[in-house]
Each structure stands twice: as C-alpha cells, then as structure tokens.
Inverse folding.
C-alpha cells in the first residue's frame, strides 16, 4: 500500500473547538476583572449562573455567560 502524504491544516485555519463551560480564570480574563469582583457579584446575586464541581472549582456555562452579558447591555443613545 503506497504511503500518502497528509496535508497539514495551518493552525490559524483550523478553528479551535468551542468549550461549553468557562473556568473561573477564563471568565475573569474575558472580562478583565479580579476574582474579588466575581465573588462580590456572586454574593449580591449578580454573577452569571455557575456550577461548583466536586473538587471545588467553578464553571460557567458559556450560554449562561452570553445571556448574562446580553442582559447587561445598555441601550444605545439616541
């Protein structure tokens, strides 16, 4: 059986699979806010819905994050 060359897909052309859940670090990086701000929002009931794993880590479902962001959109000025 002849060997066929495999064509490599350039890294920038291959889309990264989208994760369904964000880690707390990813959430903080995306919004550029400190961890203390997230926990203040959480205590006030203003953080996006999140899930605590058995190891204590938090996860935020991307769809919950996007809905939370959309709910904070301010109306355009006239």
């Amino acid at each position: 059986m002849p060997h066929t060359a495999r064509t490599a897909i350039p890294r920038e052309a291959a889309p990264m699979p989208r994760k369904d859940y964000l880690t707390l670090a990813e959430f903080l990086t995306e919004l550029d806010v400190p961890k203390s701000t997230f926990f203040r929002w959480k205590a006030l009931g203003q953080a996006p819905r999140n899930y605590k794993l058995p190891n204590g880590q938090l996860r935020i479902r991307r769809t919950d994050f996007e809905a939370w962001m959309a709910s904070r959109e301010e109306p355009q000025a006239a």
Notes: The mean pLDDT is 87. The radius of gyration is 19 Å. Helices lie at 24-31, 35-43, 62-71. The chain has three helices and three strands.
